[in-house]
Structures are given as C-alpha cells and as structure tokens.
Amino acid sequence: MKNPVPQAASLLLEKLMLLVHIRPLPAGSGGETPTPAPGYYDTSCFKRGDLLEVPRTLFIHFGIYLGENRVAHLMPDILPAITGDRRQIQQVVTNKRLILGVIARTASVRVDTVEDFAYGGSILVNHMDRLFEDQVLGSEEAARRAEKLVGTTAYSLLWNNCEHFVTYCRYGAPVSFQTDKFCETVKMIIRDQRSVLASVLVGLASIVCLGLAPSTTLPTIFIPFFLWMAG
C-alpha cells in the first residue's frame, strides 16, 4: 500500500500555492513571465465596479475594475513593510516579493493595468455573481469600496486574501471559497490517522506563517498523533 504522507503533503502544498497566488512560470523560463503589451486585452466590455477573475492552474486571482484600464487587487508584498518609496512599490510584484509578503503577512491593495493584473491569463467578468444572487451591490459602490482600501494592509492566507477583498467590495461580505477548500483539505489530512506527520507539519506551519497561538494550536496538532499511537 502506498504511503499516504507524501500524497497528503503534495496535496497540501498544492492548496498552499492556490492561496498564495504564486504565478507559475512557463516551462524553460528562467525568470518572470513577460507582461503582455498594453492593449492586449479588450477592456471595452468591462464596466467600473466589475469583478474580474483570472483562473490559473492552481488558483484564481481576483480584482475590481475601476475603469480606464485600472484594476484594484490585493497582493502579498514585502516592500510596503520596508520602504515608503511609492515608485518601487508600484512596480509589478515579483514572486520573491510576493512570497516574502506572505511570510511577513504584509500586503497592499494596489491599482495596476489590466495587463499587469491578468499577467497573460484569461479574464472572467462577474463570474461569482451567480453565487451571491441578490447580494450584488451597485457597481459604483463596489468601485468606491475598492478605492477606499487602496494601500498597505495585513495579509492572511485564510482571513484576508484577494478573494476576501473583492467579495467585500462587490457583495458586502468578505468570503473566500478558496480558503474553504483549503480548510477542508487540512481537515481531511488531520482526520487520516495514517497522515500523522503531515498533520504535525500543518500545525507547525500554521504557527509560523499564520501567527496562531501555540497554546491553542499544539494540542490540536498532537491529537492525531496520540490517537494513532493508541490505535
């Protein structure tokens, strides 16, 4: 029988990447993916306040269209925590800045061009409206909410990511379906007594990356271990 621990760890890593928004580089690429030239996307079908959604291999990135080829979106970024130079901060966020931002739990709601926001991916418009039905706010209200939030903010994989940002702006409540999927994956791993090692690693990672209190987290980590030993 195959060892379930590597499989569980691989699944967890996939879900972590989903929430972190790491941009997958194309095969053979040694650096960042080139950003499409201005005009690559037809913005004539976008309206101010639209929720833009960019599906990728392992995750979905979200933003609010502000008009005039501008998109407000939340991105993990270490630079706002170490410099006030707006010119540096406004440059396209690299993977290194993004990962360090996740570790430091620092992000910014920034305004970028549609090209920089989509990063070469296809764009869905208001695709989440079907899930909220009558909760959709007015387009102008959604855009104004996004504009008010522009600037440095705290970041959390589970509690404050790009999906929380757009659902608050367009539907009035911060929700993340990607977070829900991630939590279900974690529960599945912990429930599997054969994946004790993966459960311990998940708990330790939550302390380091998510800032959870060790006093409340450690007992939860080792419950599967004790159950496994007892069995």
TrEMBL record:
Q: Which reaction does it catalyse?
A: all-trans-retinol--[retinol-binding protein] + a 1,2-diacyl-sn-glycero-3-phosphocholine = apo--[retinol-binding protein] + an all-trans-retinyl ester + a 2-acyl-sn-glycero-3-phosphocholine; 1,2-diheptanoyl-sn-glycero-3-phosphocholine + all-trans-retinol--[retinol-binding protein] = all-trans-retinyl heptanoate + 2-heptanoyl-sn-glycero-3-phosphocholine + apo--[retinol-binding protein]; 1,2-didodecanoyl-sn-glycero-3-phosphocholine + all-trans-retinol--[retinol-binding protein] = 2-dodecanoyl-sn-glycero-3-phosphocholine + all-trans-retinyl dodecanoate + apo--[retinol-binding protein]; 1,2-dihexadecanoyl-sn-glycero-3-phosphocholine + all-trans-retinol = all-trans-retinyl hexadecanoate + 2-hexadecanoyl-sn-glycero-3-phosphocholine
Task: Write the record's keywords in alphabetical order, separated by commas.
Answer: Acyltransferase, Cytoplasm, Endoplasmic reticulum, Endosome, Lipid metabolism, Membrane, Sensory transduction, Signal, Transferase, Transmembrane, Transmembrane helix, Vision
Report if keyword Signal is assigned: yes
Q: Where are the transmembrane segments?
A: 196-229
Principal location? cytoplasm
- A GO cellular-component term linked to this record: late endosome
GO MF term set: phosphatidylcholine-retinol O-acyltransferase activity
Among the GO biological process terms of this entry, one is: retinol metabolic process
Coiled coil (residue ranges): none
Q: Does the keyword Acyltransferase apply?
A: yes
Localisation per UniProt entry: Cytoplasm, Perinuclear region; Endoplasmic reticulum membrane; Late endosome; Rough endoplasmic reticulum
- To which pathway does this protein belong? Cofactor metabolism; retinol metabolism
Give the family per the record: Belongs to the H-rev107 family.
What's the name of the protein? Answer: Lecithin retinol acyltransferase
Q: Per the UniProt entry, what species is this protein from, by scientific name?
A: Dasyornis broadbenti
